[in-house]
C-alpha cells in the first residue's frame, strides 16, 4: 500500500532525526493513511480508497458521492 491519500494527495515528506548530540540522520514522515471501503449508491457498488485521517473528515463533511465524482474526473478511480 502506498502511503498516499487519494483524496487530499498527502504523501510522505522527508527530514532529519536530530539526536541529543545534534547528529542528523535522514528520516521519513509518513501520513496517517488507512484503507476504507465505502458504498457509493450512484455506482451501486463498494469502492475501496486509501485515505488519510483528513481525507476521512473530508468525506464525512462533503459526502462520498461528491468525492467519488471528483476522483473519477481526475482519473483516480
TrEMBL record:
Keywords: Ribonucleoprotein, Ribosomal protein. Residues 1-24 are annotated as: Disordered. One of its GO terms (molecular function) is structural constituent of ribosome. Residues 8-19 have a biased composition (Polar residues). The keyword Signal does not apply. Belongs to the bacterial ribosomal protein bL28 family. NCBIfam families: L28 (TIGR00009). This is Large ribosomal subunit protein bL28. It comes from Rarobacter incanus. The lineage of its organism: Bacteria, Bacillati, Actinomycetota, Actinomycetes, Micrococcales.
Amino acid at each position: 500500500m502506498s502511503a498516499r491519500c487519494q483524496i487530499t494527495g498527502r504523501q510522505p515528506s522527508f527530514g532529519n532525526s536530530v539526536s541529543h548530540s545534534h547528529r542528523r540522520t535522514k528520516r521519513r514522515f509518513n501520513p496517517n493513511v488507512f484503507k476504507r471501503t465505502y458504498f457509493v449508491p450512484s455506482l451501486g457498488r463498494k469502492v475501496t480508497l486509501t485515505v488519510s485521517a483528513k481525507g476521512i473528515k473530508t468525506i464525512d463533511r462533503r459526502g462520498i458521492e461528491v468525492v467519488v465524482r471528483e476522483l473519477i474526473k481526475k482519473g483516480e478511480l
